[in-house]
């Protein structure tokens, strides 16, 4: 159980730390995060139905361009869900800066619970230490950063009206990269032959780079345009 608790803290702890260490805890944004988590669960259900309907069960683990393209298209349901969470949900007098963080945090937490809690509970309670669940925790941290970055790009695309025109292509490019990260990591695993630790390392590095770029873009768009 000690290994389970350590891995659980690594997987889910950063979400609570982020909420407590940022102004989100001071501006009554918990409701926004909960609503975003509910939207994520509905989105995940829609994706599951689409995947079960349109994708065939592969005979092997080889990279199938058609199947991956179909997964990419179905994965855009996440973008639609984020759009709804950012633009259609009612938010109680919180700024745009806090809104995208609260939505991204709730979205990432729901994803971690849905995809990582059960494997963690089943596998990490054993007596033997394994790096697999530590890597899953690190992957969850990378996903948290990537999701908040995607929410930031969505906020700039859909909510920020007076952004500099020179930054618009960069914003859409970054959003496209963030939205297609699952397909990118699938390509690295199946075509390039990367192992799980290498993929997680790539996700961590990419999350830091995209977080830095997103922060710079958001700051640049906050400045008044003349």
UniProtKB/TrEMBL annotation:
Where on the tree of life does the source sit, at the highest rank? Eukaryota
Does the record's keyword annotation contain Hydrolase? no
- What compartments host this protein? Cell membrane; Endoplasmic reticulum membrane
Ranges that cross the membrane = 37-57, 69-86, 140-159, 166-188, 200-221
Annotated keywords: Cell membrane, Endoplasmic reticulum, Membrane, Transmembrane, Transmembrane helix
Q: Which GO terms describe its cellular component?
A: endoplasmic reticulum membrane; plasma membrane
InterPro entries recorded for this chain? TMEM147 (IPR019164)
- Report membrane topology: Multi-pass membrane protein
Q: Which family does it belong to?
A: Belongs to the TMEM147 family.
* Protein name (database record): BOS complex subunit TMEM147
Its source organism is Silene latifolia (White campion)
């Amino acid at each position: 159980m000690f290994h389970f608790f350590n891995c659980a803290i690594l997987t889910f702890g950063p979400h609570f730390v982020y909420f407590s260490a940022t102004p989100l805890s001071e501006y009554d944004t918990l409701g926004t995060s909960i609503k975003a988590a509910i939207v994520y669960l509905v989105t995940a259900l829609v994706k599951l139905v689409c995947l079960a309907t349109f994708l065939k069960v592969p005979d092997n683990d080889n990279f199938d361009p058609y199947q991956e393209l179909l997964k990419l298209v179905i994965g855009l349901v996440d973008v639609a869900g984020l759009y709804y969470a950012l633009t259609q949900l009612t938010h109680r007098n919180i700024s745009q800066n806090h809104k995208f963080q609260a939505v991204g945090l709730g979205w990432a937490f729901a994803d971690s619970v849905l995809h990582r809690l059960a494997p963690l509970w089943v596998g990490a309670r054993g007596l033997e230490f394994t790096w697999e669940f530590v890597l899953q925790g690190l992957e969850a941290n990378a996903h948290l950063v990537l999701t908040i970055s995607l929410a930031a790009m969505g906020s700039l695309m859909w909510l920020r009206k007076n952004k500099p025109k020179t930054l618009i292509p960069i914003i859409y490019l970054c959003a496209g990269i963030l939205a297609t990260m699952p397909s990118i990591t699938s390509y690295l695993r199946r075509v390039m032959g990367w192992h799980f630790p290498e993929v997680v390392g790539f996700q961590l590095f990419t999350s830091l780079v995209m977080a830095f770029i997103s922060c710079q873009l958001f700051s640049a768009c906050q400045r008044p345009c003349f």
